[in-house]
Amino acid sequence: MEKKVNISAFSNNNMVAEENRKFFYENGIFATNIIGSPGCGKTSILEYTAGHFDEKFGVIVGDVKTALDSNRIIKAGHKYAYPIETGGGCHISPNMISEKIKEINKNIDYLFIENVGNLVCPSTFDLGEKFKIAVLSIPEGDEKVRKYPALFLNAQVVIINKVDLLEYMDYDIECVKEDCKIHNPKVKIFETSIKTGEGFENFFNYMRTQRKYF
Amino acid sequence: MEKKVNISAFSNNNMVAEENRKFFYENGIFATNIIGSPGCGKTSILEYTAGHFDEKFGVIVGDVKTALDSNRIIKAGHKYAYPIETGGGCHISPNMISEKIKEINKNIDYLFIENVGNLVCPSTFDLGEKFKIAVLSIPEGDEKVRKYPALFLNAQVVIINKVDLLEYMDYDIECVKEDCKIHNPKVKIFETSIKTGEGFENFFNYMRTQRKYF
After folding, report:
1. Per the CB < 8 Å rule, is A143 touching B119?
2. Which residues contact B162 (CB under 8 A, 6 or more apart)?
3. A 114-133 residues with CB below 8 A of B?
4. Does position B76 have pLDDT exceeding 90, yes or no?
5. B187 and B180 in contact (C-beta within 8 Å)?
6. Sheet containing A155-161: which strands, arranged edge to edge?
7. Sheet holding B155-161, edge to edge
8. Which is nearest to B112 in space by CA: B211, B178, B199?
9. Residue B58 in contact with residue B105, Cβ under 8 Å?
10. What is the average per-residue pLDDT within A31-49?
11. How many CB pairs below 8 A link A and B?
């Protein structure tokens, strides 16, 4: 009986994810699902994006508690930021997205979904996004890809953030990139820093190209 | 039906946790459950502890994949480190501990259980430990207590790690300590750095005192 319950919950999730995907496609919204540890810089990346990515985009920001991150993005001058408070939940579910997209502005061309800070649970949930973006950061240490493989099997893009801290820390970035490629040989990797702006122009151009073939 | 399955799973977990607690008590093992984000320094803290905590203790190290962390602790000169690979699971369950304690050395006085790197899911699982230790680190940012409240409601001890990085980062440590106290007014907070050794002697003495009244 337990197995049946699980299977039914999973197929329901997948069905809702497909409906979300259809909504995004029909409205020309290129949606991505951003996943990383607490504090790896997901919100900072979106704050920076709010100030520098010259396209019409929206942000859905998931948090266990508080709308702090969504408020940060609005404060950074961005109009279309929508919070999801999971109320203790460890990931955003397709149903939460399905509810939230009823209120988003349909004229946006891109949607960034910032998932709950968690390297494990959000990795296996399809929300209807075009692809997943995994965010790593230098202070976390360079073994995270090996220790949390599910995300890196499922992510088309990896952002290695806070590279300005490389000089202070013992972090083998080449090894991290190799580990990413073992899990997904076609992975696209960007090395970024909010402080210097490094890597963002490449990332934005990649997003534009990807949307073209959407 | 779904509800019944959940209730039954939870009460079974609690039952196993109580059995684990009984085992620890009968064998004079003071067990704690260490929880924090990926990369906050849980394993480094235990490596440092292996070299400086002059007591008989064991370590159970949970990881989604690999025994990397357990090997690090053994390499640091520690004899009693036991890995648990959760195989995709986002937390250690009481059952995993129940299985693992069959093979641990019963002559230890302390047991540190290093949970999977995750600020959300492990917070609400009782493994039979005496108390939970939450680990924060400076590079994660100073809003984590507000964003992930469940852990800080449940933790008797908070370690704020990597304080040597305070001078490079904008982190309001007094505010973090206040946030911790809002969730648990009796919380005991330690500020630590592996690089300087700061805070560890206080932490070790606290553990010794706590075990005395165990």
Report:
1. no
2. A139, B40, B41, B137, B138, B139, B193, B194
3. 116-121
4. no
5. yes
6. A81-85, A57-63, A110-114, A30-36, A131-137, A155-161, A188-191
7. B81-85, B57-63, B110-114, B30-36, B131-137, B155-161, B188-191
8. B211
9. yes
10. 96
11. 115
Would an 8 Å CB–CB cutoff place A148 in contact with chain B?
A: yes
Please count the CA atoms within 13 angstroms of the CA of B195 that sit on its side-chain side: 9
DSSP one-letter string for A163-185 = GGGGGGS---HHHHHHHHHHH-T
Residues B17, B88: Cα–Cα separation, whole Å = 21
CA distance A211 to A31: 9
As a whole number of angstroms, the distance between CA A189 and CA A174 comes to 11
Predicted TM-score (pTM) of this structure: 0.89
Q: Which helix (H) or strand (E) holds B86?
A: none
B118, B145, B154, best to mutate vs chain A, most A CBs in 10 Å = B118
Best of A46, A71, A119, A154 to substitute, by most chain B Cβ atoms within 10 angstroms, is: A119
The pLDDT assigned to A8 comes to: 63
Residue B71 has a CB neighbour count (10 Å cut-off) of 14
Instruction: Work out the minimum CA distance from B164 to partner chain A, whole angstroms.
Output: 11
Query: pLDDT at position A3, please?
Result: 47
Q: Which residues contact A132 (CB under 8 A, 6 or more apart)?
A: A32, A33, A34, A35, A123, A151, A154, A155, A156, A157
Complex-level ipTM beyond the 0.90 threshold: no
| CA distance readout (Å), B68 to A34, A146, A173, B52, B113 | 26, 9, 18, 21, 15
Cβ count within 10 A of residue B69: 23
